[in-house]
Every structure is written in C-alpha cells, then in structure tokens.
Design goal:
about 90 residues; globular; Leucine-rich Repeat Variant; single chain
C-alpha cells in the first residue's frame, strides 16, 4: 500500500512505474498526489494511465488532477517534438 509520503520519493527518483501503480490505490489522496506528480515529471509513459484515470475515477478531485496532469505531460511532449523539429544553429 503506497502512502502519500511515498509519492514525493517516487517523484524525486522519477519512478514512473511506481507512480503509475499508485494511480490504482484505494485512497483518493494517494491517487490524486500520484497524478499530480506524474504531471510534474512529464514522462510520456504516463499519458495512457492518466487518460484512463481522468474519465474513470470515482472521485472528482482525482479526475481533475489526472486531467491537468495529462495536459501537462502532453504539452511537454509536444514542446519536445517541436524543439526536435527546429534546426540547430551551428
């Protein structure tokens, strides 16, 4: 059972798999905190789990956090792809 305090440790270690697993915990605060952490980390592996959570969680706060986090990850991914498409100056 993941606790809220564990989420910060996982975020600092960039433990994406652990954070994604925490999205399935029983406690709403753990799921909400995990979603927020995934948004901050911005790893594209979180897109699908956050997409699922933002439409399926029973708690409105968790759904909202997952929606915001999903948008953060998607924006970071889009910015990275845009930057890769820009030629670098020599």
């Amino acid at each position: 059972m993941t606790q809220r305090k564990d989420i910060d440790t996982m975020r600092r270690r960039r433990d994406i798999d652990g954070l994604i697993a925490a999205l399935s915990e029983l406690e709403e605060i753990v799921r909400l905190t995990a979603a927020e952490a995934l948004g901050l980390v911005g790893d594209e592996r979180a897109l699908e789990p956050l997409e699922h959570l933002k439409f399926s969680d029973s708690d409105a706060g968790v759904r909202r956090a997952a929606s915001v986090a999903h948008a953060q990850v998607a924006a970071r991914l889009a910015a990275r792809k845009a930057a890769e498409g820009i030629p670098r100056e020599s």
